[in-house]
Amino acid sequence: MLAFFHQAYSDPSNAPARAPVIRTLGFDAPRAALLGAGFQPVRLVAPRLAATPRADAVMGHAAMGHRGKCLLEALLSWDDTPLLITAADGEQPQIFAALRELGRQGEAVPRHMHFLDWLHLPRAASMAYNDARMTQMGDWLAGLGTAPAEDAQALLAHQAHLLDALGEARRRGRISGTGALAVIGASAILHPADYNPALEELLVELVSAPEIPARRLFITGTPHEGLELYSAIEAEGWLIVGEDHAWGQSFAHGPCPPRIDVTSAKRIASAATACGADAVLHLSIGGDEAAPWQEAAIRRALPNMPFTALRCDALPDARFLSRLRGEAEPPRAPKPPRAASPKGEKRSRKSLESVASFNAYQRAWFADLRAKVAAGSPFAMANANAPQEILRALDIPFVVNQWWASIVAAKQQSGRYQSLLRDHHYPANVEAYSAQGIAAAFDDDAENAPWGGLPRPDFVHAVATSEPTARIFAEWAQVTGAAAFVYEKSNDPRMDLYGDWWARLPDHWEEALEPERIDLMTAELREVIATIEAKTGRRFDEARFRAVMDLVNEQEDYYRKTRNLIAQTVPAPIGIVDSMPATMVPQWHRGTQWARDAAKAFYEEVKARVDAGLAACPGEKVRLMWVGRGLWSEMGFYQKWEESHGAVFVWSMYLALAADGYIRDIEGKDALRALASRCITMGDELRMPTWAGPWYVHEAQIHTIDGVVALSDADPFVVRALREAGFPVLELTADNFNREGEDGAAIEAAITTFIEGAAGQRAAQR
Questions:
Q1: pTM of the full structure
Q2: Residue 84: what are its φ and ψ, rounded to 5°?
Q3: Counting Cβ atoms within 10 Å, is residue 258 exposed (0-12), middle (13-18) or buried (19+)?
Q4: Which long-range contacts link 47-50 to residues 24+ away (Cβ below 8 Å)?
Q5: Which residues does the chain have with pLDDT short of 70?
């Protein structure tokens, strides 16, 4: 009977179907609701060895991993089977948005497709949001015309009982972990009316099965979408008796694991002990950046049990097997030194006096913050996309996490901080930019601590925009004793989405965005406010908050005026060497009079340069757009072609997003809901298909751009949209931090060729 489950697991397309099939992408697809609607849900997983030519053509050098591209490849050749995609991981909303955008452009995509933005944090606001999304899914299912099934709940209840019995058979050593995983996985493929009798028969067989003699192992980490790793591990003499990942025993019929789960390490330790495990193996599979952030907590919870953490691909290879056996790895050859730029590294030339005082202000502000904390003031750390305005209104001193990371890098402490992370069993190369605050908690070197060191926070706030974020901030709270709050990252599931958000959001945000998403974030803001009030005794004042929001709107309006001046003026009065720092430093302080006045001074100085006919490059011939994060450590890079080619980088996302992404009209409106509307879209404007592409094209058009230079983190649909609009694009395979694959000389040569070729030709034609 075990062969029946293996067959269904390995080839779902040939599994028996008792009802119309609906394919599901995401371990959290609501199977009960789908069965109750009269469907047979069949899970879709990424084929591990598939070629991805069409997905590669669509996604280019995007950060989407091989798993995501394999899924996209399959979905680009879809039949009429209905498809439900959930937000189970960071890639699936991006896959849905890519399909939505391709459909908008007239390409073939799944005809019956629905995105269920299902949330996983155990909060009342999240549950209310899920209820609304489930109602919408129900309406979609009803429109597919299938008759409801009345026996679904009873069948699933019996299935849960049988799966519990399977878990007991595993603990008795009657079935291998590979076999058990196939049985569990088949529960997401077969109809319970077929699955339950087959499992009953298998359980009878297992009663008399001999106990498997082997070392007993518990698996945790990344969900396993295939049997290959389990099979390879058990071939080495292990018996996998239990697991704690989303496709395993624990969640086969229970609730999905939340994105923040501070009790997960204790749960894992308890489950491993209950299974009689001799050891625990933590696997981070296929570039999963969230799983490595579990390791330290699990180690703490299992002080007396052998524990190993490995990173591996979805398919076992010789290196994985060698590490599984505990064999020493051969030393890796050192990387060759990066070739120096043929033009040398020059410091950037600054044109603006209005930013000259920024560094002194930052030092004085941080020293004052440290003094306040030393005197007993509460202190918060917030990610750049977290709603900082409520902290400002409550007079809670705070530091933006990304600013702190930039100070660590500027003070050349990144290497030492990476060592601190590794010493405490945290990954040093997985979202390291966001983890510098955790490293600071272990920094006892007062002499080298950047700017005197980071105070220990009372609150740490972020939005769950990436898989690791929630776990990083949960661990940060555990290390420091801070109260963590990670806001949900909701996604827009509408199939018909407008493409001119910059014209709608500032004044018409209530109509442009779904009320469900605004309601969710507003409820979370109120929860955070209540938590801070309870811990500090401070009271949130609505008038003070509205004043903060007014200051933000004034500040961003000056950025909008400045952006428009630069766009309209040829030659450009300044380049991005000036506009980037002039924008970003005050943004860390938005909602203050200093930040508003800094933005005003920036605008007035740029206007004075326009009035005086001053230019970043008086001999301007080519206007360039920079797509991607800034090269903050090498700002002089952007000016290397001004003298030789008259080529000026006039556009980056920093000033443009400040101009279009932050302003929210609050006149006669709920200011807290206005703040919520800003937070829920942050990041979508830059990288989410349908949102990002039209905006970049609009910006390129109003700035009279001749050529676009895009880093590897550029959204592929942005690149595609720019090219289709007629703008030449040079794609680099480097990012703003690690230039692996292209050294400085190669990058400069490529840009020079681009300026002399496609970009220069477009400039000559205008």
A1: 0.92
A2: -115, 125
A3: middle
A4: 47/74, 48/225, 48/226, 48/228, 48/314, 48/315, 49/315, 50/74
A5: 60-63, 256-262, 331-347, 734-743
